[in-house]
Amino acid sequence: MGGLPLQNASSTLSLPGSEQNKGSAISTSVPESKQKKKICCACPETKKLRDECIVEHGENACAKWIEAHHQCLRADGFNV
Q1: Is CATH 1.10.287.1130 what the domain over 36-80 is classified as, yes or no?
Q2: 57-66: per-residue pLDDT in tens?
Q3: Biased composition, Polar residues: where in the chain (predicted)?
């Protein structure tokens, strides 16, 4: 008597939930493949030169390399 509504409710809840999870997994994987680079991975050449200069000479002496890296990041679409 009371078992029928509970069985129907549990089967109704499990089926749509599993279908929704499959759909959301597919939809979340698509945008990830279309994402642009992260700022940490952009312009590795200028980043390396900037970092080496800062380690060896200090930030104040490396304005040229810092600005070159910023220009490269801006060219890649970052707002720095």
Answers
A1: yes
A2: 999 999 999 9
A3: 7-32
